[in-house]
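Follow-up to my earlier ticket, as requested here are the two runs.
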Amino acid sequence: MEEHRIVEPATTCRPFLLAVCRPPGLIAQDELATIKAWGRMADMELDQISLLNPSEPDPSDLDLGKYSGVIITGSPFGYAHPQNTKSVQHLLVEERVGSLARRVVAEDFPTLGICFGLQALARTTGGTLVGGFAEDLQAPTITLTEEGKADPLTGRLGGEFRSYTGHSEAVGHLPPNTTLLATGSFCHVQMVRWGKNVYGTQFHPEITTKGMRIRINSYGDTYYPADQKEQVIARCDAAEVTGANRVITEFVQRFRR
């Protein structure tokens, strides 16, 4: 089952904040809808800020006390791109997501960083990003570590689940004082925790089978050779990824206040 009915909260809850690191479009729309659905959130429970829009508040000025938690999205922008090729938007999102990442870790504020969000958290807190561990559009098995099995958020997911991936960089060396919660057979660092409340995933818990079709149609010759589209669709359609989608559910349920 991919879709959850969004239920109006019985009492007034502080909303979550979606820090968006990608331009508007079909992927951003699907991302928003899936996070709402799997978080079982009404419209009033999810605010948005675009980290690509210079007219929106700087993360250092946000009143985080208004929110239950923060979710940092993925992004088409990557840290490995040559500096002299980066657009104004690219440089802006790196600066602003870095500011937000440093702040939530320093305050141990409930946060879930997804893909680019994880990389921002790692890069700004002393970790390193490396090439060589790229994963194209597929659904590898994610395995919880012993720490992951004991964690109050991931411990409810079972020992293994599959999740969609799509990234060109990965976390190489973990930042100090972090806990590795989940690994993969090829890309080793798949989920990390800072302190007690800040989480990051390299995999994509916000992508459903329907949402992966949108990305396959958008990313030909980026994450896979365009002439292999039908094979990519077949392998992605065959994957059961609702275990990964539950990361969104568990994060929201744990930190909603």
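Run two:
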Amino acid sequence: MATHNIVVLGAGVSGLTTAYLLSQDPSNSITVVAKHMPGDYDIEYCSPWAGANYFPTGQPGSNHAKWERETWKPLTEITEKYPEAGIHYQDTIIYNRKKDQNSTTGQAFSVLVDENPWYKEVLSDFKVIPKHQLPPGIDNAQTFTSVCINTAIYLPWLVGQCRKNGTVFKRAVVKHVADAANAHHSGKTADVVINCTGLSSKKLGGVRDDKLLPARGQIVLVRNDPGIMSSISGTDDGEDELFYMMTRAAGGGTVLGGCYQKHQWDPLPDPNLATRIMKRAIELCPQLVAKGQGIEGLDIIRHGVGLRPLREGGPRIEKEKINGVAVVHNYGHGGYGYQSSFGCAAETVRLVKETLQGKKLGAKL
């Protein structure tokens, strides 16, 4: 059997999911090369800061929606078959205020808060909350069961699955994407390089994608457990501020967020924003703290900042040749890297197979 030498550049959720799918084919010999690995909490490495959950935001008929649709089944299969992966189901409530429709966050999350969203066909128990049961100021709301991922467990689980299938992991800083072809653990030149470097593709030689920009997110991680996962269409604190809340599996704490600050690179948590986040959480979900308590009732684990790898026009999943090296790109997923991870990885694997088949035909000719 012919062996395909593959280098995956980047070890965030996109790189690890792609490597995981590729590693299931024994003809693939894979090396994951990355500056940051699971366990790192660096501003450049967004994946550990994510909630993470499944809140679909892709417009109907878009690739974004297709990738989210294709990711739901793999996530539920992992939830049910592999409890060690750190994913669990959570009851979810989504609130919408029509006054948020024209705001930055309202537009970004319009699909999630739609009264009749496409994803109701994907989730088994989607229900619209009757109007007479809505809290004051809320125009519509829905409930369903979704998943929440403890990233501190899930990313290492993906590493473990890849290693079980023979994947080798190496730390390295790669200045030019074509240089990654020389990083395969066999010492041979890789047949294909898969670029999953996220926001770093903005500065990576051979790529330098000017369409990439950071969408800064800030969270407060607390020990309090509200018993539900929730979000709302917007806030009164600013157009780029939002609210979401989710409790990670296996004792991972409850994530309170957040914001969606485009072109903002600041790595330090803003204490004033943190206070607003905590106040919004208690206002929407009073059971988060003991009766009568405010933010002093929150037991804080840590504050965090992550830079979502947002890309104008959507993620880049395509193939090209750079300095004679076959490259397949999979980056730029903004805030939906986890909930589109398997759909995007499957598309990437398809392009890798096309690339390898083309190399094989070229060799025969």
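The only thing I checked on run two: The radius of gyration is 21 Å. Let me know what else you need.
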